[in-house]
Design a protein that fits this description.
globular; 368 residues; 14 helices; mainly alpha
Length: 368
């Protein structure tokens, strides 16, 4: 009698296990870096909090993986409405941090950031919008303009230009994936470029300063240019192999500002050097490629568009965060996915991974 090893049923599911493993590795790098950056300071609890958020996010991700992604088509309207209500609530009851009103205090132990939820809501909304229509008519473009203008406008008044920019880039990417005519896409780009002088007039003073600092950070090394210059020093001081966790001069002497969020890539570079930075970039790139693979195997247009939208979302945030750490882009406060500290962003990203796994589960006929 031959003995045959039978694996548990979940091991036989057609999951992309890399989509579970890589985010966990990225979270581990983030927690290790946050611990290194806050070691010996009053902010050491940030790493513990991030671990709690990661545990909660992982549980939610597993639950969302089992939830049929096709059900999101019927729920996305309610999700979108909830996000809009939360964004309005931020304007009325939000907590002000660093001059921006972006968070809702939930019971004194968690700050909810609705703009992070808005990123996923926009992906799901646009995926349903394009999946429901074989061909767009003029009225559809009007609806699109309204549906996008509401959350983007509410994010802009917080003010959060960086997140608004991410929303617009992701929307443009989904327009392309959704089959919007090239002349419409080019027209949208032309309108955006022509609107820059108008947008400039509505920017807050500190936002204008950030743009000017990006063009010449050395012009005000102890003021507006301080953050960027310190990030560059941290990246450069890491050398080839880094100074080691908890050993970086910039982080330990607290020269590097908001290193656990906006400038966490600089913290990684200081601790692990060029080698560690390239490993981090490789993991993020590999994650995005796995998301693209989900789009390729999706059985329907909705799943395809959701995966494409999430790929654009991750890619946009990775490029902007790393670019601003290297002074290649203005400082915008965009987190590095799965690495930067932040409960709402981390849990939202885990939800996105859960939806992707649900698409993978159902690209073949799988039932529970």
């Amino acid at each position: 009698m031959k003995f045959r090893l039978r694996l548990p049923i979940f091991w036989r599911w057609p999951l992309d296990w890399w989509l579970y493993l890589v985010p966990v590795l990225l979270v581990g790098i983030g927690i290790a870096t946050i611990t290194s950056l806050t070691y010996g300071t009053s902010r050491v609890s940030l790493a513990i909090n991030q671990g709690i958020y990661a545990g909660l996010g992982f549980v939610v991700m597993m639950a969302v993986s089992r939830f049929d992604y096709r059900n999101w088509r019927g729920l996305v309207g309610y999700f979108y409405l909830l996000v809009v209500i939360l964004l309005i609530a931020v304007e009325r009851f939000g907590v002000v941090i660093f001059g921006a009103r972006r968070w809702l205090d939930i019971g004194g132990f968690f700050n909810l950031q609705p703009s992070e939820l808005a990123k996923l809501a926009m992906v799901l909304l646009l995926a349903r919008f394009f999946a429901d229509r074989e061909e767009l008519i003029r009225r559809d473009y009007l609806w699109l303009a309204v549906l996008l203008a509401v959350p983007i406008g509410l994010v802009l008044v917080q003010p959060d230009l960086g997140t608004a920019l991410v929303l617009m880039i992701v929307a443009f990417g989904m327009f392309w994936a959704g089959g919007v005519a090239r002349k419409i896409l080019l027209g949208a780009v032309a309108v955006g470029v022509a609107s820059l002088p108008i947008i400039w007039q509505f920017l807050a003073d500190y936002q204008r300063t950030r743009v000017a600092t990006f063009l010449n950070p050395a012009a005000d090394p102890y003021g507006a240019g301080y953050n960027v210059l310190q990030a560059l020093i941290a990246v450069g001081s890491g050398g080839l192999f880094g100074q080691g966790l908890g050993q970086g001069s910039q982080s330990q002497q607290e020269f590097l500002p908001v290193a656990h969020t906006d400038f966490i890539f600089a913290g990684v570079a200081e601790a692990t050097g060029l080698v560690g930075s390239l490993v981090l970039i490789a993991l993020l790139t590999f994650l995005i490629l796995r998301v693209i693979r989900v789009a390729q195997v999706s059985r329907d247009q909705f799943g395809y568009l959701v995966a494409v939208g999430i790929a654009f979302l991750f890619l946009t945030q990775v490029v902007i965060n790393i670019a601003m750490n290297l002074a290649w882009a203005p400082v915008t406060g965009i987190p590095l996915p799965f690495v930067s500290h932040g409960g709402t962003a981390l849990i939202t990203n885990f939800i996105a991974i859960g939806i992707l796994q649900s698409i993978m589960l159902r690209h073949k006929k799988i039932t529970f």
